[in-house]
């Protein structure tokens, strides 16, 4: 027990509760969680309407997206290569998809939307007019059950493959192909689905990579569709007959179609497969136009994106490395240390954080409901374990919390050392740390939910003690800029912090006094309670006197620095005046 007290401080057991998790703390503060409601919840959506980006609509968009992907990949292949009969597997799947698209029309007509001003529109008339100007007609055409219509005309189940009606019916799924561009809208909403969100994090996909993947996916999808359409025109004069492939396997036919589409897209044009019929000529010209778009716009955009991104990053990295070279040369830093500096810059370059102004600009771009949600979800609602934020108003929470920087310290790392300038306040999210005195005593354990560094910041003094990580620790850092925002915009919170400083400072000195007293009692062999209490009182008085002396010395130093600064400004001002007088005299002499 004595060893643990020496290691972690006299109040270890009172501040550490291993069984208490963040979820337990959240349970204690349910009233606070309920009070921090998002503004979006204040916007009441009628019970008969769906929210466009929450709840059921998110999962429905996933179902619709999978249906559209099926339509994009399987439907063209069925139209070109497979002649299905009524009530086979393809017929059943087609009927299911028809039902999905019918339900989608109904759901869309009952889904609110957000207008250009960010307002949630729940009026059925406005929803209908917006849908009518967009996808309504195409969606309704795509919902027509052509298979059932044909079966009602020919109930015997016999399909006349080459008559006019059959050719029209085989086009039954083409209107659905017009819906494929709707996938682009669904991709924007896909991140709201937890599974896809985890995939984005797992593969660490940046915006530029997502853009490249999307472009190449569109190229592959277009290749697939145009290949199916190239085979679709089937009569005695088509390329299939000319190539003698009428009895070829399905895979060979599809592969040959892909080959033609790819050679046309790449503008190779070997000439072994050429268009002859009117349908083939029209399709080939259409594909050439599309190929021009892909080659001139899509690929150039990707190359520009990659080159500009890499070039910009390269310039910044080169500039930083050049600064290290100059700094090392001017200060005669050894080559080994210089190499470590360069290695650190290269390894951390891609992980650079936003500057403070960039972070402010980014957060101001978001709506207030989203900023509240960001603040609540940072590190699994860690905000609610800190006393400073538990009873604060939501504006303070969503303004300040996203501005805190996350830092990681491995066991043994110092967060700061005694005598450093005090600029930041720290909040322990996970892990443990402890204060270290000038005598290397470890006291006052810092657990998740504790914050420290505020005493010196408020008193505007240097660090009284060092803080060291006892294990791998995750910490929020509140910078000087954020503290300034609190002081100006949330003055009442800053006053609470100031008022709490004296009490926290007293507790800090008492913890150190207890640690010193226990150590002295252990060394002297006199560990009775009365002696320890006496030693605690003596040590506490010494610390108070020492702190007051340091404060007086620091105040004297501050006054001296202020006077020196005043003298410096006075001398500079007089020097400028003397230079002006000398120039005036020189001009008089010359004249």
Folded structure, characterized:
The protein has 591 residues and is an alpha+beta fold. It has three domains: 2-36 and 380-499, Sandwich (Jelly Rolls); 40-189, no CATH class; 205-352, Orthogonal Bundle (Helix Hairpins), CATH 1.10.287. The chain contains 27 helices and ten strands. The protein has helices at 2-8, 12-15, 22-28, 30-35, 39-42, 56-81, 89-109, 124-133, 136-142, 146-153, 164-169, 174-177, 182-189, 194-203, 207-232, 239-242, 250-265, 278-330, 335-348, 356-365, 368-377, 387-390, 394-400, 454-459, 480-489, 491-524, 529-590, and strands at 113-114, 120-121, 405-409, 414-416, 425-430, 433-436, 442-446, 451-452, 466-469, 473-478. A hairpin with a 5-residue loop joins strand 6 and strand 7. Helix 6 (56-81) packs antiparallel against helix 7 (89-109), helix 6 runs antiparallel to helix 13 and helix 25 packs across helix 26. The longest helix has 62 residues, at 529-590. The chain is elongated and about 105 Å long. The N and C termini lie far apart (91 Å). Residues 1-42, 157-173 and 179-195 have low confidence and may be disordered. This is Cyclic nucleotide-binding domain-containing protein. It is a multi-pass membrane protein. Keywords: Ion transport, Membrane, Transmembrane, Transmembrane helix, Transport. One of its GO terms (molecular function) is monoatomic ion channel activity.
């Amino acid at each position: 027990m004595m060893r643990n007290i020496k290691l972690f401080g006299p109040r270890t057991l009172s501040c550490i509760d291993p069984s208490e998790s963040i979820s337990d703390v959240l349970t204690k503060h349910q009233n606070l969680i309920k009070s921090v409601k998002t503004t979006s919840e204040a916007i009441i959506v009628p019970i008969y309407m769906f929210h466009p980006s929450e709840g059921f609509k998110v999962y429905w968009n996933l179902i619709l997206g999978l249906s559209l992907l099926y339509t994009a990949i399987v439907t063209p292949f069925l139209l070109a290569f497979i002649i299905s009969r009524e009530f086979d597997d393809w017929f059943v799947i087609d009927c299911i998809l028809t039902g999905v698209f019918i339900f989608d029309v109904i759901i869309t007509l009952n889904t609110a939307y957000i207008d250009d001003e960010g307002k949630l529109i729940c009026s059925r008339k406005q929803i209908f007019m917006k849908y009518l100007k967009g996808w309504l007609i195409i969606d309704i055409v795509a919902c027509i059950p052509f298979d059932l219509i044909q079966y009602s005309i020919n109930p015997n189940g016999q399909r006349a493959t080459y008559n006019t009606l059959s050719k029209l019916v085989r086009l039954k799924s083409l209107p659905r192909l017009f819906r494929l561009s709707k996938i682009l809208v669904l991709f924007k909403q896909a991140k709201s689905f937890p599974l896809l969100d985890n995939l984005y994090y797992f593969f660490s996909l940046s915006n530029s990579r997502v853009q490249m993947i999307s472009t190449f996916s569109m190229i592959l999808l277009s290749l697939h569709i145009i290949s199916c359409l190239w085979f679709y025109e089937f009569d005695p004069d088509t390329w299939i007959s000319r190539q003698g492939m009428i009895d070829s396997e399905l895979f060979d036919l599809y592969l040959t179609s892909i080959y033609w589409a790819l050679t046309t897209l790449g503008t190779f044009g070997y000439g072994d497969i050429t268009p002859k019929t009117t349908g083939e000529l029209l399709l080939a010209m259409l594909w050439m136009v599309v190929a021009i778009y892909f080659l001139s716009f899509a690929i150039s955009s990707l190359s520009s994106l990659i080159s500009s991104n890499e070039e910009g990053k390269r310039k910044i990295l080169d500039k930083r490395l050049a600064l290290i070279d100059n700094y090392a040369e001017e200060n005669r830093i050894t080559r080994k240390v210089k190499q470590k500096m360069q290695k650190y810059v290269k390894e951390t370059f891609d992980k650079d954080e936003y500057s403070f102004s960039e972070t402010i600009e980014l957060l101001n771009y978001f709506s207030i409901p989203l900023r509240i949600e960001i603040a609540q979800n940072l590190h699994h609602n860690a905000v609610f374990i800190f006393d400073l934020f538990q009873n604060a108003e939501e504006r303070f929470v969503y303004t300040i919390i996203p501005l805190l920087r996350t830092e990681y310290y491995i066991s043994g790392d110092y967060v700061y050392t005694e005598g450093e300038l005090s600029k930041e306040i720290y909040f322990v999210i996970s892990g443990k740390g402890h204060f270290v005195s000038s005598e290397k005593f470890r006291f006052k354990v810092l657990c998740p939910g504790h914050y420290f560094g505020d005493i010196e910041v408020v008193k505007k003094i240097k660090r009284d003690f060092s803080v060291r990580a006892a294990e791998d620790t995750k910490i929020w850092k509140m910078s000087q800029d954020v503290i300034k925002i609190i002081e100006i915009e949330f003055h009442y919170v800053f006053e609470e912090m100031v008022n709490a400083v004296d009490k926290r400072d007293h507790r800090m000195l008492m913890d150190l006094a207890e640690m010193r007293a226990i150590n002295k009692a252990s060394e002297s062999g006199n560990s009775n309670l009365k002696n320890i209490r006496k030693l605690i009182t003596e040590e506490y008085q010494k610390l108070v006197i020492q702190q007051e002396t340091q404060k007086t010395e620091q105040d004297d130093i501050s006054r001296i620095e202020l006077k020196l600064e005043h003298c410096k400004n006075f001398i500079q001002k007089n020097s400028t005046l003397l230079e002006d007088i000398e120039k005036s005299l020189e001009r008089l002499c010359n004249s």
